[in-house]
Amino acid sequence: MCIGARLRTGSRPRLNRPVHERYPQIRPTSGYGDPRITRTGPGPGAGTEQEPERSSKLSARLALALTVVIGQLWGLTIVVDEWMAGDTGTAWWGAGFLVLSFLVVLGLWAIDPKDR
Q: ∠ CA 22-25-27 to the nearest 5 degrees?
């Protein structure tokens, strides 16, 4: 007996019926001819940018925030390196840089609260 024949006949013959017998609620016209469907989905232009100014502003903020995050990670690496080497003075200046960059990000976030 081949595997395909076994799968087609199976142990549950009720599943081997044609689709229109298994699902009588699905008619051949379901979709395009179904009177219950009144809208076909998004119209022309769906997915295109509606507010390009807002999009460019958000992209610029994202780029700036990513730059600050990369700078913070770099600064944290330097601070930990200096701290482990015993140069605590440089480590404290580096910690001040990290706090300052965090405050810059908070300031950028607070500039335009209506855009959130």
A: 100
Tell me the pLDDT tens digit for each residue of 53-101.
777 888 888 898 888 889 889 989 989 998 899 988 888 998 898 898 8
Task: Write the DSSP string, 61-111.
Answer: HHHHHHHHHHHHHHHHHHHHHHHHHT-HHHHHHHHHHHHHHHHHHHHHHHH
d(CA 92, CA 100): 12
Rounded distance between C-alpha atoms, residue 96 and residue 93, angstroms: 5
- CA 84, 86, 91, 92 dihedral sign is positive
| Distances from the Cα of 75 to the Cα of 9, 69, 81, 107, angstroms | 67, 10, 10, 19
